[in-house]
Amino acid sequence: MSAFDNPTIKTQHNHVSVREFSDRVITEDERIAILESARASSTSCFLQAVTIVRITDPEVRAKMAEYAGNQAQVKNAPEFWVFCADYHRDERVCEGEVDLGWTEQLLVGCTDSALMAQNVLTAAEALGMGGCFIGGIRTNIQAVHQLLKLPKNTFPVLGLTFGFPAVRNNIKPRLPVEILCCENEYREPTDEELAAYNDTLVKYYTERDPAHPLASWKAKLEPTLKRERRPFIKDFLNEQGWALK
Ligand SMILES: Cc1cc2nc3c(=O)[nH]c(=O)nc-3n(C[C@H](O)[C@H](O)[C@H](O)COP(=O)(O)O)c2cc1C
Q1: With pLDDT > 70 as the criterion, what percentage of the chain qualifies?
Q2: How far is the CA of 98 from the centre of ligand 1 (A)?
Q3: Which of 85, 99, 129, 228 could potentially form a cystine with 124 if both were Cys, beta carbons 3.0 to 4.6 Å apart?
Q4: What does the pLDDT read at residue 161?
Q5: Would you state the pLDDT for residue 135?
Q6: Is 136 in the pocket of ligand 1 (CB under 6 A)?
Q7: What is the pLDDT of residues 77-87, one digit of tens each?
Q8: Structural domain boundaries of the chain?
Q9: Residue 56 in 3-state DSSP?
Q10: What is the mean pLDDT of residues 235-244?
């Protein structure tokens, strides 16, 4: 059997973000199994520096949807979980005898949260569901922090909606392996390799939404990279005790 036929690998290769969900109910068995996949995640230095906040209250959902930039999926998805970097619990266990505020700890909190969130999405996808990460919660990070009553030395890194899909986009073409992965040292991709991927992306987006054909890969990147949408993040993190040194 080819490795490509492995069910886990097939699930990963078929990933697309799902933003519209059917009425099919997630069973308790499925939800708990997914939560156990979250628990099983690797964690730096065994700090377990993540807390998940599962949002079930429709009013809290509605506010989260608004704070995330009016994303309907946050309100409508069967499940919406927020992954928070969390040193508060470890600080408590250590009775305050800790040295927090290092930028490295911020990286650890983000890494652990992202790895756990991906484990959750992969578990959900393995059960036939789909989902979408929600970085949009950081657009109003202060309000989200307050709404979820998060203590100091925690912050919401990202959210995840999931459930059974009503609509699935075609798989979005990623960078080819020759560009993605180099050997032993960094390799600049050639102009030809970049141009070929540009053409692939233009074709994908134009077929997906013919009314709004994509001009170029550059046109996709520029709006995000030319203007930072969340310039307040550093001040917020500092206020919460992160990245002070
Ligand atoms: C950390 C992170 C945050 C994201 N935030 C959002 C979001 O707020 N809203 C959204 O619709 N998609 C969000 N996405 C989904 C990406 O847009 C999506 O993964 C990317 O365009 C690739 O498409 P695909 O997942 O369908 O292959 C996020 C993805 C990641 C990894």
Answers
A1: 100
A2: 35
A3: 129
A4: 99
A5: 98
A6: yes
A7: 999 999 999 99
A8: 3-170+231-239, 177-214
A9: coil
A10: 96
Of 90, 103, 104, the C-alpha closest to 152 is 90
Q: Using one digit for the tens of pLDDT, what is the confidence trace for 94-148?
A: 999 999 999 999 999 999 999 999 999 999 999 999 999 999 999 999 999 999 9
Compute, in angstroms, the gap from residue 20 CA to the centroid of ligand 1. Answer: 14
Only one residue has tokens 């990623």, namely 174
Q: Where are the extended beta strands (E) located within 129-173?
A: 130-134, 154-163, 165-167
Instruction: Judge if the beta carbon of residue 18 lies within 6 A of ligand 1.
Output: no
Has domain 3-170+231-239 been given CATH number 3.40.109.10?
yes
- The residue contributing the CA closest to ligand 1 atom 1 is 135
**Contacts for 129 with CB less than 8 Å, ≥ 6 apart:** 18, 26, 30, 162, 163, 164, 165
- CA–CA gap between residue 228 and residue 30 (Å, rounded): 38
What pTM was estimated for this model as a whole?
0.97
**Helix or strand (DSSP H, E) at 58:** helix 58-67
Q: 151 CA distance to ligand 1 centroid (A)?
A: 27
Gap from CA of 115 to ligand 1 centroid (Å): 15
Q: Which residues have a Cβ under 8 Å from the Cβ of 107 and sit 6 or more positions away? A: none
pLDDT tens readout for residues 185-233 = 999 999 999 999 999 999 999 999 999 999 999 999 999 999 999 999 9
